Amino acid sequence: MGDQILLNDNHETSSDQGFLIDIYPLSSYYFGSKDPLPFRDETLADRVQRMKSNYQAHGLRTCVEAVILVELFKHPHLLLLQIKNSIFKLPGGRLRPGESDIEGLKRKLSRKLTVNEDKTDWEVGECLGMWWRPDFETLLYPYMPPDGKSPKECTKLYLVRLPVSRKFIVPKNLKLLAVPLCQIHENHKTYGPIISGIPQLLSKFSFNIINS
């Protein structure tokens, strides 16, 4: 765990196929903090009941999450949010009813990573993968199980390309970490199946590290 870098304590592609990612040094970015976000303090049973109620009201729950890379020590690092010093998450969250993937992800990124919540300043790229929850109590899978007739949740991962500089303003009850891809790779125990699978999703890309 010592390789994690805590950040918030007080472009375009040039490949014809779009398989090149420009990555800028961590030192190109500014990190600050803002008022904490409200979080539900609920048990697993409470969460399942909330999911059931939302499903009855709105149908399939869709979550969108961002894969954001920076460079540190000449190696790509993934930006992760940490909650209560134990739970790691990608920046993002649940869509509102009728909201598009792109607009919803921009809204979530602005709420959790900026100060003025401006949704226009995010370059959301391709969808890297989709995970499905076939039932309320089950885990997410990177495919729909054969007996999954009516999935209850879909989580989509989108590549978000950063500009050469940006201000990240993070709620005080979240930690923003930069974690090397080599530490995340297949580390299911620490980061869970979705995050630990991201290095494989990125394997088709080449990283163009740009020193400012």
From TrEMBL:
Keywords assigned by UniProt, alphabetized: mRNA processing, Nucleus, RNA-binding
Main location: nucleus
Compartmental location: Nucleus
This protein's record includes keyword ATP-binding: no
Signal sequence coordinates: none
Keyword Nucleus appears in the UniProt entry: yes
Subunit details: Homodimer. Component of the cleavage factor Im (CFIm) complex.
Function statement: Component of the cleavage factor Im (CFIm) complex that plays a key role in pre-mRNA 3'-processing.
Similarity comment: family membership: Belongs to the Nudix hydrolase family. CPSF5 subfamily.
Name the record gives this protein: Pre-mRNA cleavage factor Im 25 kDa subunit
Organism: Hevea brasiliensis (Para rubber tree)
